[in-house]
Structures are given as structure tokens and as C-alpha cells.
Amino acid sequence: MNGTLNKVMLIGHLGDDVKMHYFEGGNCIGRFPLATNEVYINKTTNEKLTSTEWHNLVVRNKAAEICEKYLSKGDKIYVEGRIKSRQWQAEDGQTKYTTEIQVTEFTFLTTKKETELHKQNQDSNKNTNFDSHGVRNSDNDDLPY
What we know:
Elements: E1 8-14, E2 19-22, E3 28-41, E4 48-60, H1 61-70, E5 76-89, E6 95-110, H2 112-126
Parallel strand pairs: 4-6
Antiparallel strand pairs: 1-3, 1-5, 2-3, 3-4, 5-6
């Protein structure tokens, strides 16, 4: 194979809300941490353990605005992108390094807003009192239940 491939696929939970940075000319980026978990059993203690890996995600322009609008800490998301390492000089003169995932595709799996709406709908359904006495549907009269 002559070419190379830099592709990442992750499913995880946001560790914080999307932080936006705006630039002159109207461009913007959004940054947020994503946690992925690996669950395994310690063979010596038979204890169930969870190992969490944190990823720094970066989304750009319209995608960043969409993520900021709909995502919040704890939401589950699927992302595709590529690994990008960069360095910069900190105010104290030290060289800092970071590795980020430059997101190219994403799909919201669960959002808190969606979960809260679903919970509210379930609560309202639980509190609804239907009186079915005296109501008959002739189409369903022969149903065994």
C-alpha cells in the first residue's frame, strides 16, 4: 500500500460543554473533551474495572455551531476524524504539546435535552388517568385482551 491513513472513530461521552472560539472573518472552532471507557475484569481479584481514555476534540465552523447548540456535558456522540498533533509556546516560554482529534463527521447518539424530554413525556404519561369504563371499540371487540 503506497498511501497512508489517519482515521479515528470514537463513541463516547462529552466531558464538558463545547467551548467556542471565534476568529476574524467569521470562522470558529469548538473544543470539547470526549471520554471513552473500556470495562474489563481483573483476573486475580475478579473485580470489574473501568479504564477511561480522554480525547480532545475539535470541530470547525458550522459543525462547531451545531455541536454547541445541541450538545452538553454527558451527551453521547459518534465522531470520525483524524489525529493532529501541534505545539505552541506558553506564556512562561515552555513549549507545550497536544494531540487532538480533528472531527470530520459526527452523529449525536443521546443528548441530555432529548433524554430530559423523553423523561418528561414518560412522567406526564404516568400521571395521565384514562377511564376506559364504558368505552368500546367495535373493531377490537373480538381481541382476547
